[in-house]
Amino acid sequence: MGRWQDGRGMLIVHGDRGELAVPLEIASSYRARTKGLLGRDSVDGTLLLSPAGSVHTFRMRFPIDVAYLDRRLRVIAVRTMKPGRLGRPRLRSRHVLEAEAGVMEGWGLRVGVRVEVALG
User: Is the pTM of this model over 0.90?
Assistant: First the structure.
């Protein structure tokens, strides 16, 4: 899998409903991970923070769904976080997906589901 660079691509969700492609923004540099979704009013698709084991929503303008992924890109936890919260670190988490609150359920993203990153 290697290490990704900051940029854009697609997140492929391999869920119960088949494959679903979601617009993806990758934040792998320290600067991009630190900024995350801060200062934004929304997100188009999802943001992948890599590497990451936990997140916070201090100074965020909207609630978000957070999916913690293991090193094989399998979902190990999904949470909805309101602004001003500190998420618990997940020991096996290597990557974190962030999206607007409520959308991950619609994508079929839940514990045990595998995702794939398609660059381009």
Answer: yes
